[in-house]
Design a protein that fits this description.
By secondary structure, this protein is mostly helical. It is built from 7 helices and 4 strands; from the N terminus they run ββαααααβαβα. The strands form 2 sheets. A two-stranded antiparallel ribbon has the order 1-2. Strands 3-4 form a two-stranded antiparallel sheet. The longest helix has 42 residues. Keywords: Membrane, Transmembrane, Transmembrane helix.
């Protein structure tokens, strides 16, 4: 059946497709800016559109890299909060008090100071994704040293040792294991932080010299991607480890004596002497 028998048709300009975002009509503008960072380009675009007035019902939204970063940032915030909450719940169940877990979680704050300092020293930006992953991993690593110190301190107290003497003895006894654990972790992350990787796909086996030159790659895109995470873990772990050996026992002794003076339970139940 010919279409002309059903009605009249004419040709005029129209839309080939209608794009919608969240059920709202949208028009997408994109472009390439070679040799520039996405954040710099976005800042320039926002500056130019600052005084641009849109009709009623219209709005400008920024997608692409910025949208993905915002989604990743929201997810990492939730993951970091959930990780901290889970660690606190486990520590409360283990130590049967809230004071000790709070002292242990203080090491996470110390690690964050180290992360920011490391990024400043290395002149690296705070990457939302990889640096955020490094911070979350630090939350589960740096607490181990504080757990070891305080657990052994409480063991010595139960044997009748004074809280200050127990804290000092625990620090002396656990100094080597704590430093060795942190050192091995840091040394293992140095190749990732410096961008050194092994390229096993493009090896030149003609002679020994070219073999090693083609084996070791210092400019791979993968190593640059992971560098910010490695820097965050290295500096955060180093800073938190050194201060944990001093700050954590000091805080524990102060809070323990305060609990003994005011007759508070929980923390003071670790030993009888104050």
């Amino acid at each position: 059946m010919p279409l002309g028998s059903l009605g009249e048709f004419d040709y005029r300009p129209g839309y080939g497709s209608i794009h919608r975002v969240d059920q709202k009509r949208a028009v997408t503008l994109s472009g390439d800016a070679e040799g520039r960072l996405g954040k710099e380009v976005l800042k320039d675009v926002q500056e130019r559109l600052k005084d641009f007035h849109l009709p009623t019902g219209y709005a400008i939204g920024y997608a692409g890299e910025k949208e993905e970063e915002e989604k990743a940032q929201a997810f990492l915030k939730k993951a970091f909060g959930f990780a901290l909450l889970l660690i606190v719940l486990i520590l409360v169940a283990q130590f049967n008090t809230l004071s000790v877990p709070l002292i242990i979680m203080f090491t996470v704050i110390l690690s964050l100071i180290g992360v920011l300092g490391g990024l400043l020293i290395c002149r690296m930006p705070f990457g939302i994704i990889m640096t955020g992953v490094g911070v979350i991993s630090l939350a589960g690593v740096v607490v181990n040293n504080a757990i070891v110190l305080l657990d052994y301190t409480r063991q010595l107290q139960r044997q009748g040792m004074d809280v200050v003497a127990a804290a000092v003895q625990a620090g002396v006894t656990r100094l080597r294991p704590v430093l060795l654990t942190a050192t091995t972790t840091i040394l293992g992350l140095i190749p990732m932080a410096t961008g050194v990787s092994l390229d096993i796909h493009n090896l030149d086996r003609t002679n020994l010299g070219t073999f090693f030159r083609t084996l070791i790659n210092t400019r791979s895109e993968t190593s640059q991607w992971w560098a910010s995470m490695a820097i965050a873990v290295i500096f955060g772990l180093a800073f938190a480890t050194l201060l944990t050996l001093v700050v954590v026992p000091t805080l524990y002794a102060i809070l323990y004596r305060a609990a003994a003076r005011f007759g508070l339970g929980g923390l003071h139940k670790a030993g009888e002497q104050a």
